[in-house]
Amino acid sequence: MDKDGIALPGTPERDLLELVLPDELPQHVAIIMDGNGRWAQARNLPRVEGHRAGIRAVRASVETAARLGIPTVTLYAFSTENWKRPALEVKALWGLAKNFIDAELDTFKRNNLRFRTIGDISRLDTSVQRYLKRAMTATAECTGTLVQIALNYSGRNEITRMIRNAVNRAADGDLQPESITEQWIDDHLDTAGTPDPDLLIRTSGEFRLSNFLLWQVAYSEIYISQVLWPDFDAAEFLKATLSYQKRERRFGGLSSEPAATAAPSGESSV
Ligand code: FPP
Question: Span 13-247+261-269: which CATH code?
Fold first, then answer.
């Protein structure tokens, strides 16, 4: 440990686990998985091998979150912009998504993990949609950690779809302007029913949001890991959690204590 209580690199996973405060866990961890291509490149492998290795890291983060009892984990697997990648890489990514479901569905059920996607899956190949829906249905009753995979997702696309939905309802006379509150918006985004991420992790040392959960990360604590995604293991997840537990969260106020009264409109200050 260094003087601020942050675990030093190389600390064994078991020791890190003991440092985690069970009463101060993030309730929702969102992850921008970055660096698969660079990981593969460094090994003279095709980029897709980086994505394949990335699946191991997905498993490690999900397992660690479940072990800690973190209620929600959201992973950014395929953005609406990722269609611009070479066709072979896109095809491989969807193949990996299907393999992931095939390989993990039983484990999810056995460990009481619920699977859900966020993003516009209506635009995906019908066979992929079938896979995703099967996994969601099969785990719908699970009450443990919710694992949300962002597929064909971007924050702007999610907000655009939510606004279209609102306008359509208003045109049908089912929605009045004053009914549109922050809560209404929360309830009509893909992430409806989950709290905003307390912790947003991005790997590979990049400082960007890349169109991920733009509405929801308003007050998230951000943790940038230098590690490339395929190397992001349980110990790295624990280090991110420990870093989060050292932060003072103010939500625009002056201390971590909840404000006595909210602003009249329910909008927060800076
Ligand atoms: C970013 O790395 C990673 C992605 C665009 C895809 C992430 C996908 C996986 C880990 C596999 C699929 C996962 C699931 C859960 C189905 P990059 O390729 O942009 O890396 P680079 O910046 O080094 O090129």
Answer: 3.40.1180.10
Residue 90 neighbours by CB under 8 Å, 6+ apart: 82, 83
Encoded amino acid at 269, one letter: S
Domain boundaries, the chain: 13-247+261-269
Nearest-CA residue for ligand 1 atom 1 is 34
Distance 110 CA to ligand 1 centre (A): 26
Reading the chain (270 residues) residue by residue, the pLDDT tens digits are 444 445 556 668 889 999 999 999 999 999 999 999 999 999 999 999 999 999 999 999 999 999 999 999 999 999 999 999 999 999 999 999 999 998 999 999 999 999 999 999 998 989 899 989 999 999 999 999 999 999 999 999 999 999 999 999 999 999 999 999 999 999 999 999 999 999 999 999 999 999 999 999 999 999 999 999 999 999 999 999 999 999 987 788 887 555 555 444 433 434
Please state, in angstroms and rounded to a whole number, the distance separating the CA atoms of residues 185 and 200: 20
